[in-house]
Amino acid sequence: MVDESVEPERRRSAGAQAVAAVVVVGGVVGGMWGLGGVLPKTSAQDSKPATCSASADGSLPAKYASPTALCTALNRTDLPVLLGTPDEHAVTASGSAGWMTLAGGTKIASPEADVDLKTYSVRLSASYDDIPVAEAARYVDSTSQLKSILGHPAVLYSDRTIAISFNLGGGKASTGPGGVARSLLVSASGKDGGDSFEISIWRQDDVPPDDEALFRIAEEVLPTVPGWTAG
């Protein structure tokens, strides 16, 4: 039996990855940093939406959004409706605190949360790299577009996913190219002061994700995240 899952290739903010470009080539945010970001998730009964499971909240400075807060903000009861799949529900929901170490030794906090449904997966992450979105936008892929989300500077771009297949009988895993992930990197404030949030969506098949769903989620979820400044 083979169990196949799909994850984005990287999971850091555009600004952070621009600094670490010697380590990761191509694309920008919104996904796994290699394969090391595969997170344990809490499963739910088939008939009930998953509840959030988060860890290591205390490892982050108090002013940063915690994994629990990110997971709670993302794992909304109306998330399936926002995604355009109203008959589905969250199958897994988790949050994780992480730190990225740059080449010079600087550590950047990178808490994130993931919610998986049958059709879609959604990730919400926070970055505190002090790089404005307008500057980070220069490093995203060539198809990126500058946007505004609730009056905040944002950039819309694409990334690739990695398909991970697990041979449950042989105990081995293999990886290969997956589909497309669509991401919105959004400044935490209208003044674009350096802190940012990112929402990424990707499907469990090869169908491109719906940009309108991504925008709907961003507009509903981001104002509920600690550190978001209205206006």
Describe what you observe in this structure.
The chain has 231 residues and is α+β, with helices and mostly antiparallel strands. The protein has one domain (2-224). Helices cover 15% and strands 35% of the residues. It contains 5 helices and 12 strands. It has helices at residues 14-19, 67-74, 79-83, 133-136, 211-221, and strands at 2-8, 42-43, 53-55, 92-96, 99-101, 107-109, 112-116, 120-127, 145-149, 152-167, 172-187, 196-203. The strands form 2 sheets. Strands 1, 2, 3, 4, 7, 8, 9, 10, 11 and 12 form a 10-stranded mixed sheet that branches. Strands 5-6 form a two-stranded antiparallel sheet. It is globular, with a radius of gyration of 16 Å. 45% of the residues are buried.
Fill in the keyword field for this structure.
two-stranded antiparallel ribbon, 15% helix, single chain, alpha+beta, 35% strand, 231 residues
Task: Explain briefly what this protein structure is.
This protein is of the alpha+beta class. 15% of the residues lie in helices and 35% in strands. The chain has one domain (2-224).
